[in-house]
Amino acid sequence: MANINRKNIRNFCIIAHIDHGKSTLADRIIEKTGLLTSREMQEQVLDNMELERERGITIKAQAVRAIYRAKNGEEYIFNLIDTPGHVDFNYEVSRSLAACDGAVLVVDAAQGIEAQTLANVYLALDHDLEVFPVINKIDLPSAEPERVKEEIEDVIGLEARDAPLISAKNGINIEEVLEQIVAKIPAPGGSEDDPLQALIFDSVYDPYRGVIVFFRVMNGRVRKGTRVKMMATGAVFETVEVGYFGAGQFIPCEELSAGMVGYLTASIKNVKDTRVGDTVTDADRPCEKPLPGYKKVNPMVYCGMYPADGAKYPDLRDALEKLQLNDASLFYEPETSVALGFGFRCGFLGLLHLEIIQERLEREYNLDLVTTAPSVVYRVYKTDGQMIELTNPSNLPDPSAIDYMEEPVVSAEIMVTTEYIGSIMELCQERRGRYLGMEYMEETRALLRYELPLNEIIYDFFDALKSRSRGYASFDYELKGYERAELVKLDILINREEVDALSFIVHKDNAYERGRKMCEKLKDEIPRHLFEIPIQAAVGGRIIARETVKAMRKDVLAKCYGGDITRKKKLLEKQKEGKKRMRQIGSVEVPQKAFMSVLKLDDK
Amino acid sequence: MMKENGHPAAGGSRPLGLYIHIPFCVRKCLYCDFLSGPAPQERIDRYVKALEGQIAAEAELYAPYEVQTVFFGGGTPSLLSEDQIGALMERIRRCYRLCEGPEITLESNPGTLDPGRLRGYRRAGINRLSMGLQSADDRELKLLGRIHTYADFLDNYAAARKAGFSNINVDLMSALPGQTAREWEETLTRTARLGPEHISAYSLIVEEGTPFYERYGETEVVPEEEERLMYARTGKILERYGYRRYEISNYAKPGYACRHNIGYWRRTEYAGFGLGSASLAGNVRWKVTDDLERYLSCAASGTAAAESGASADIAAAAAGVGAAGTAFTAESGVKAGTAAIAGNGVAAPGGAEGAAGRKAPRPEWREEVHALSVSEQMEEFLFLGLRMTEGVRLSDFRRQFGAGLREVYGPVLDRLEEQGLLVFYEDGRRMKLTARGTDLSNYVLAQFLLDGEA
Hints:
The complex is a heterodimer. Helices cover 23% and strands 34% of the residues of chain A. Chain A has 13 helices and 33 strands. An eight-stranded antiparallel beta sheet of chain A has the order 10-9-15-6-7-14-11-12. In chain A, strands 21, 22, 23, 24, 25 and 26 form a six-stranded antiparallel beta sheet that branches. In chain A, strands 2-3-1-4-5 form a five-stranded mixed beta sheet, sandwiched between helices. Chain A is globular. The termini of chain A are far apart. Residues 36-61 of chain A have low confidence and may be disordered. Chain B contains 18 helices and 15 strands. Chain B has a nine-stranded mixed beta sheet, with helices on both faces. The interface between A and B is medium-sized, with 24 and 40 residues.
């Protein structure tokens, strides 16, 4: 097995729209390749984070190596590289794809092509991957494999006639997929004798071994003792161990050479030194130039994170530090809020990334957090010629010092069945979208293209899309650039006190509407007090909306029945428990979730 | 364990209330979330037998006590025949020591009473009759899903007086959907003119799981201002007829406050019999299962156990409760109180096989057995005591817990006083809710919960 020829290696990934069965197919492939007994199989081998399992999406790219004995009698090494399935992690996806030579495209036999299917296929084709389709879920009553095959040929232009018809869930026809991987995906190229050139597609931090770098060797070889250099960061380390990926474990080996996928450890202390997309080379015999495509990813979305209990500030700092060891795209720096005390301004790739970090902080580090509304990064051009990148709305300079502002804009593709085109277009108009065009994919479906301001889509756009299309729309986007816009800061006053943590940036034309909804929302969220509480929205010191939380008049349990004191006490405890999740702002107690109210302005 | 505590008085006269739950009714009212429902006669009969079993089986547990009050609550206890009430009272008399002049209450529903039955109840020893009128308006009665009319009530009320009941309570309910303050006052004055000794006036709470909840959900069935107006008017009107408010929703003529209910607010110990009933003894709280079949099967076997004298387990538990309870009231402060809890936590829940030395039947109907920590006792002292119009006495707190109220609750007291919700009187020896504090009593009482260091 050690002497398997490079021509018997297949490096590939599986791409699919969410829920079309990517992870399940990966499980089946690993099962059928027989490296693992069924007993060893966790339900989904690739997604080993608890959180991922629950959300049904893959967050961190990982890889697994499996051995397949093909019908031609030869043994093949399959390196299956998993790709994150969310637009927040687009860059990671592109690096994972770059580490592959081919891709298996999974399409749901009932749903057909969706927006992510297209986006992923185009991304794969951009990386010159060989892509072949697989039709999944053929045992569903609503399956229409022939229609979907046609769709794949018409829309994507991929040969689909002999696409395997499978059910990953029920293990139908998986062999056919394996055979096609052998037949259709090319063996890796490159040369063992050239200087080392390897692409980092992921890394994880291990407290005992330091950073474990995941990479694909394009050229050359690497073994224990090789002095490796990360070309972008310039860091140099001596390799301690190289190996490949068993399912859920690391298996050390002698050497990794051109075409292989594996890992190395080198007592690296920080994932910042091993950025995804960077090129690993031999420090003593470097390659001429790094592999193309590396970029430093910048956070797209920022929010404030504060410990609910101020005394937990050091714990939050330690937790963020630990998470960052594993996640180079997580950014944080200390900040102070009048309303919330000491906390951190944190930057994320997107809202999903934010939610994942938030949940990990709460679950794994047991922290109770107050999170402020996420904000995108605005560019503020001041009259003195300076430009600042604004990540915290409350830091917006005085309007008189601002020349103009720019906001990030994305180009989005929305796939929708024709009956909902109207309502989706309406949604995009409401969100200040600029219509670019529409193509009919087939009679009943169309692809809408829009330019949309990022701040209009990061919060709830996806939910709105789903509800206005009854779940039939799918959506993908990429950052296009910055554009000038008329933006203002909306301030919220609770009991006449401005609450910095509730300020947000909004387009001038939407300020009134948003302010009004924000006041309504807060009115519902803030419990009644012993006194009346005005809630006001203001732009530049001018009040544009107001609501009032009436004073509490009555809160009495008239009938306290018999001896059942426990029930009575539970009621009081509930009341008291509620208080704990409150933030004191002046003399008003504000529930912690109120700070996220701006996210829910469109709920009805 | 702690059997010897050298406190002779404690052995004989610890006051106790008995509560007997009758979980049956003719038809469930639309707002009712109590443990109650219609049942065939055969099941009711079996239930009464099971009650007798539990009453007998637990008797030894309460050997050191003297029963001050008995309360038949429901449901509709007046669904039970005079013979059945008689049998239960007989069982109680045989197994428990009753004080001189106990208060023995039976809840009843108009429409289920007749002169013969009322006379029978009197003969059984019932001396206080509680009547669930709720409203003097037939339209409102119908809305509530009650089985009777106002005329039915008047009829039963007269019969009760004639049968010799000289202590009658009438339950009324305000804040009914769509009710105006004027309509409520009509019910109130009609009732007050009849002159029952006691009136309970609750405002309707729409509870989850009731048909009312399905109909009204969380919406306000009566505007809050109107509801508070009704409450304020209730006190004023009843005062004119000679009633005084002594608890948030209870009004009585002088000398007729309900001793049994006051026991709950003052944390007198009590024993609960029947489905879902709660008990407090030796600072341990527990409940009887609310699974009817389970209760019927194990409480019935309790009869056999008690009658064959095999309830060693319960006897052992009784020793624990007696001893621990004694230590607790020995005016010896917090420490003794803690010891009492420790002693009880083991004994009362019905472990004690070790003490008994052999496997004995244990009271399997018991659930949610919880030994109260000192903090929990303090919390209860306040959130129960402050429901009383006269509030609590600071010296009682010190006597029970060996610590001053201010030491434990200083900042809370200051804040509530400043907010005008709480007031000290009698030179600061007592403390009670203000009128506003009463309106906001949940808010006020929640302030007295300590952060659960048990």
